[in-house]
Amino acid sequence: MIRGSTELVAIVGSPIAQVKSPENFNTWFASNGCDLAMLPIDLQETALEAFVGSLRGWQNLRGCVVTVPYKQALAARLDGLSARAAALGSVNVVRRHSDGRLLGDNVDGAGFLGAARKQGFQPAGKRALVIGCGGVGSAIAYALGEAGVRQIILSDPSAIRVGALCEVLGTAFPSLEIATHYRSLEAFDLVVNASPVGMGSTNELPLPAPMLTTLQPSTLVADVVTSPEITPLLQQARDRGCAVQTGPQMAFAQLGHLGAFMGVTPLEI
Ligand code: NAD
């Protein structure tokens, strides 16, 4: 129950009804006896500037999770950013300090990697294919670079997005091998779809179907799409004997990272 004493965290985006964080966080707060609650905020873009001002002055608010479409716009308005959020130019979580300062981080990649490690994936020295170089794909590629993968192949129909991510990764991780073309899936330890392809009931694949015949059973295949849980890519990977990682697994693995940054949960929950 929300009381006068309850401390708050928020999640801001638009639309917001589809997000799972409020039920996940509020369930965790209730079952751990915390006087804390998460509020969903569906914010109009024109109210963003005023919203940041409100965050600074909102004394019983510990922080705010940020989702589409405000990850970049909010990053540009905060008082400080983690190194990865600064490199990516986007935040998915903000911590409010008691003096009103707002600090941002981006834990999309850490959540992804946390879920992958639970599958037994050890990133150091590995080769990864990242399909989709938008907000989430960039965060995943950055986390893989931080964790010491040897090679990342990037794929996205937008040459501008591929180029921008190559530059970010090349600057942050000078010894990382970065390429933008692939002819087979054989050499990859990890294949991740970080694009929205496969969402809903379109039955689409994010790569050419014949290429799936080159997928090896030792490759971990991951998808960021949350609905359906088993996307066409994951189904085909399973059929070929691969371990798979779903979008909901990534989302769940992020909870501790988001909560710990706001200071409301431990890292491991
Ligand atoms: P975005 O719009 O920033 O990026 C999507 C990228 O995919 C774009 O660069 C686009 O050009 C690219 N793309 C489209 N079709 C492609 C194709 N056929 N092959 C390769 N790339 C292609 O979006 P985003 O914020 O990065 O989100 C991507 C997906 O991740 C969404 O479906 C979102 O719901 C999901 N998501 C999941 C989690 C989670 O925890 N599981 C968290 C955040 C977002």
TrEMBL record:
Q: One Pfam annotation, family name?
A: Shikimate_dh_N
Annotated organism of origin:
Pseudomonas kermanshahensis
| InterPro entries per the UniProt record, alphabetical | Aminoacid_DH-like_N_sf, NAD(P)-bd_dom_sf, Shikimate_DH-bd_N, Shikimate_DH_fam
- What residue stretches are annotated with the Shikimate dehydrogenase substrate binding N-terminal domain? 11-94
Keyword DNA-binding appears in the UniProt entry = no
Pathways involved: Metabolic intermediate biosynthesis; chorismate biosynthesis; chorismate from D-erythrose 4-phosphate and phosphoenolpyruvate: step 4/7
Instruction: Give the protein's recorded name.
Output: Shikimate dehydrogenase
Gene3D superfamilies cross-referenced by the UniProt entry = Leucine Dehydrogenase, chain A, domain 1 (3.40.50.10860), NAD(P)-binding Rossmann-like Domain (3.40.50.720)
* Stored CDD domains: NAD_bind_Shikimate_DH
The record's keywords, sorted A to Z, are: Amino-acid biosynthesis, Aromatic amino acid biosynthesis, NADP, Oxidoreductase
